[in-house]
Amino acid sequence: MPSAETPVPVAAALAPLGAAGPAAAPDPLPLSVVVPVRNEAPNIAPLVAEIEAALAGLPHEIVYVDDSSTDGTAAALRAAAAGAPLRVRRHRSSCGQSAAVVTGVKAARGRWIATLDGDGQNDPADIPRLLARAEAEAGAAGGGILVAGHRVTRRDSWVKRRSSRIANRVRARLLHDDTPDSGCGLKVFPRALFLELPHFDHMHRFLPALVLRQGGRVVSEPVNHRPRTRGASNYGTLDRLAVSLFDLVGVAWLQRRWKRPVVEAAEDPRG
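Structure tokens predicted for Dolichol-phosphate mannosyltransferase:
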């Protein structure tokens, strides 16, 4: 793994995708872990401890975005910040998971971003492997890369597993994103690449398709998935499915309405 002083191989590989955007952070770390949460107070301390254990020896930061929680999440984050490289942003009113991810990535200082769901079902121990895969893919082929977690063995209810399987099949057929588990919260990608993507509500479910639209590449990596042991889910199955169908149509429209330019060096007319 790279140290804070060692250049990360992806820096040059991202050149074809353009600048990082107006919010490029100074003195970037190798990695920022972005965790969006809403009402996850009992999961804060255990998940922060697991992230720290998984990333021991790798310079990093953890960026939590509190999407206007109404429980003890804010207090739990203040307590966790005393013993970890934790930075916190809070939304005044709830704007959803995608908005929280965007806020976190913009605030992050890492060259690479790892995203995790805040409910403890994603395993932070998988992050180093996904980061190594991302660095290897970027170094071998160049360009932007997204490594998407694939929850091979889901630890959810039968209804949630079944609805996700159907949604993944429909999405893959319409968007051709070649990703078996687009909804997995565990992903690793360059910060610069994410800042070039279109940002909209529920975009986190369509990151593979958006990265492909931008000219990047997507690979999937099997990851551990765990049952929720604390707190309650913020999503219902039927309402999530209905919203996803509308979003799917919108992303398909975005794909058709964009042509990726190939930029070539032009002769300077001034000689």
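The first strand starts at residue 29 and ends at 37.
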